[in-house]
Amino acid sequence: MNSVVDRIATAVGWAGSVPPELDWDTVERRLETVLPSDYKQFMSRFRSGVLCDAVRIYNPVQSDEHLANFVEEFDLKLEVARLSREECDLYEVFPEPGGVIPFASDLAGGSLFWLPRTSDPDEWHVVYQSRDSPEDWTTTELSMTAVMLELVTSQGTDNILGWEITERSFVPF
């Protein structure tokens, strides 16, 4: 049986992989948090790029440059979440215990976060903050790769973004 990451790659016609220049210990020390294993598996297959003309992902182990881009985006998304927290008191923001941790963004300025409700990153699920309504969060019980699979296989607007996804592709940058 194919892994979820293989199913995502097949859905978008991606046959590539990533020869990482950095290791996960370096990335996790820089971010000051551990990361889920399914995310690491996804990043071993996908370079930094855009998935389905909807989600921008920086691969932090791809190179020093991509880690710098990831950290810049990470810090920006944390700041936006902190500002929206002042408006609606929904989620704590990393590095607060249980605070949301960003990992990707949509092309309209929204953000995808992990919600670390437990100390085991493999039990974290995904929440989404729309740029249009920063006080409106979409919560799932899904892992990062399950959310990406849902995104690349969704029909109509049945996905975390609520967007109709018509472009089934992955474009690296």
Outline:
With 173 residues, the protein is an alpha+beta fold. It has helices at 4-12, 24-31, 37-45, 64-87, 144-153; strands at residues 49-51, 55-57, 101-106, 111-115, 125-129, 137-139, 170-172. The model has no long low-confidence stretch (mean pLDDT 92).
Account of the protein in words:
With 173 residues, this protein is an alpha+beta fold. The protein is built from five helices and seven strands. The protein has a seven-stranded antiparallel β-sheet, with helices on both faces. Helix 1 (4-12) packs parallel to helix 5. The two termini are 30 Å apart. The mean pLDDT is 92.
Highlighted features:
single chain, globular, alpha+beta, 173 residues, seven-stranded antiparallel sheet, 7 strands
